[in-house]
Amino acid sequence: MKVYVVALLLMCALGGFITRADAARVFPSVDEVAVKTETGPDSVTVGQRFHVLYHFSYADSLRPVVRDKIDAGTCRVIDEVAWKETRDGARIERTADVTFIPLSIDSSVVPANAFDFVTAAGDTIRAFTDEVRVPIKRIAADAQDLRPLKEQWKAPPNYWLWGAIAAAVLVAIAILVWWIRRRRARDGTIAPEAEEPPDVIALAELERIAGMGLAARGEYKLHYTLVVDALRRYLEARYRIETMDRTSFEILDALERRGERVKGLGQLLDEADLVKFAKFSPTVDSAMAAIGRARDIVIITSPAETAEPVGSV
What we know:
The chain is an alpha+beta fold. The chain is built from 7 helices and 10 strands. The strands form 3 sheets. Strands 1, 2, 4, 5 and 6 form a 5-stranded antiparallel β-sheet that branches. A 3-stranded antiparallel β-sheet has the order 3-8-9, with no helix packed on it. The longest helix is centred in the middle third of the chain and has 29 residues, at 159-187.
């Protein structure tokens, strides 16, 4: 009798072991994939880039399923996601440093993303990254010394009187301008207004920025902003394209559509974006060199004109 009882217990134990093994094969353990999500900044401003590091550690018997894109939530992925793999014994370390830029002024949220891994038996393991929330900074959001708004200005009660005075002043100014123009026209003293070419204006502006000494004082963001704005205004006047409200990529794309490829322009715009939005700190020499590079772009793209020597007949 004891022999039958022992045999029965062994069969039950073996049956339970087989059941657990089959269940482990059909439903693999998620613990085989370790996921870690890291982000750098505690907060960002609107338009400022931030990085999220995705780190997966899994057995080398698993095969990751390549995803076309990452759900960026209220943000946008700047560059194409590039994965790096290293081996640590029998495990694979798979990482990707993804750059995001917030599109909302209220929140900066990258939701949890699901990543699948396939076992040698063809089963699928799904691992989830953490949700990333980076607060959006607002200017003077927590200031304690903000003064209350002043009382609204009250207009004088006699609107007709003030309206008549303003109209009379405008009429007097118009008559004065008309009289001066007519007198100059009669005397033949009106000279056409000379408009400086865009390249001359841009070069003068770059020279003025170089003399401000912003880079020497460490004001790199303002330095690069002024240099790029001077270059943007020149390109807008030179090629008749909108530049001031466009991103660097849109400016290069508009020039390429016109068949224009300006050497060095893309590198200078990217460097300025890094300083303005990614808090990149260049050296003083590289910041001053940016003015020289902008000057070279203006010179090589300005239309060639043959000026007549002064005093020639």
